[in-house]
Amino acid sequence: MRVLGVEIGGLSIGGIETFIDLPEWKVGFDLGRVREAAVQRPLLCFTHAHVDHLGGVVSHAALRHLRRVEPPTYVIPRENEAAFAALFAAWRELDRSTLEHRVVPLAPGDEFPLPNKLLLRPFRSPHRVATQGYALWSRKRKLRPEFAELPQSELDRRMRTHAAEMTELVETPEFAFSGDTLIELVEREEVVRRARILVLECTFLDERVSVAECRSKGHTHLDEIVERAELFLNEALVLSHFSLRYTRNEVLELLDRKLPPSLKPRVTPFLEGWR
Ligand SMILES: [Zn+2]
């Protein structure tokens, strides 16, 4: 689906599998089970090590080797570095293959420049295991506002010699993906509230799973999002990771009924590959 001109593919089903794909930006997030579209991605960023988010990684490395394409790069939470290496060591021993790949362990506060020129910055997501979401930041030189009124010819003349002083580096969070999280993430992380496009976990939608039970699983409930509707400054909010107990029509109907007018026009459910 396209959101604010950005293609978002993959699929996300709570507890089953998650893969959020940004084909134009050539980066994917999480891989519960290997997917053909994911094999095309040389770069995957993992939010946490629950099997429905990480289970496809070994197959991914193996399939890229089979296709004779460049070995993949995996961005992982720094807490997972040793266990991730042990996972691949065990598979290499079992499989007698190299499963070649590069690992980039990152923690909140770190940044990693992507080949697409966006900057990847992780942030902490509160969940049952070590989890981090990711923001993609663009960085552009823009004219300082005090020069905006200058006539074009004067501007061109001055820019030839003083471009550095007349411009500033502006960083914009273009995209953020929460990973699995409690709703507190939205209160704690400014980038989550401000990202132009936010893909937010929203596993449970109605009383079939109460807010309390949802929280005990480390997840976010639609009612908690509704209660905090005024926090979201995003241009687009993509809700994802719905439990399989909801049909497509139930998701659409519950969102339509519960979301306040201030939020509803900006919300799109992520129902790619949904039944
Ligand atoms: Zn999880």
Structural class: alpha/beta
Q: Under the CATH scheme, which class?
A: Alpha Beta
Terminal residue distance: 16 Å
- Strand proportion, as a percent range, falls in 25-35%
What's the Cα radius of gyration?
Answer: 21 Å
List keywords for this structure.
alpha/beta, Metallo-beta-lactamase, Chain A, seven-stranded mixed sheet, six-stranded mixed sheet, binds zinc ion
Layout: helices, strands, pairs:
Elements: E1 2-3, E2 6-7, E3 9-13, E4 17-22, E5 27-29, H1 36-39, E6 43-45, H2 51-54, H3 57-66, E7 73-77, H4 81-95, E8 102-106, E9 112-113, E10 119-124, E11 132-143, H5 152-166, E12 167-177, H6 184-188, H7 190-194, E13 197-201, H8 211-216, H9 222-227, E14 236-240, H10 248-258, E15 267-269
Parallel strand pairs: 5-6, 6-7, 7-8, 12-13, 13-14, 14-15
Antiparallel strand pairs: 1-2, 3-4, 4-5, 9-10, 10-11, 11-12
The protein binds zinc ion.
Residues 48, 50, 53, 127, 180 line the site of zinc ion.
Provide a descriptive summary of the structure in words.
With 275 residues, the chain is an alpha/beta fold. The chain has a single domain, classed as Ribonuclease Z/Hydroxyacylglutathione hydrolase-like (Metallo-beta-lactamase, Chain A). 29% of the residues lie in helices and 27% in strands. It has ten helices and 15 strands. It has a seven-stranded mixed beta sheet. Strands 3-4-5-6-7-8 form a six-stranded mixed beta sheet. A two-stranded antiparallel ribbon has the order 1-2. Strand 14 (236-240), helix 10 and strand 15 (267-269) form a beta-alpha-beta unit. The radius of gyration is 21 Å and the shape is globular. The protein starts with a strand and ends in a 6-residue tail after the last strand. 36% of the residues are buried. The model has no long low-confidence stretch (mean pLDDT 95). It binds zinc ion. Zinc ion binds at residues 48, 50, 53, 127, 180. Residues 48, 50, 53, 127, 180 line the site of zinc ion.
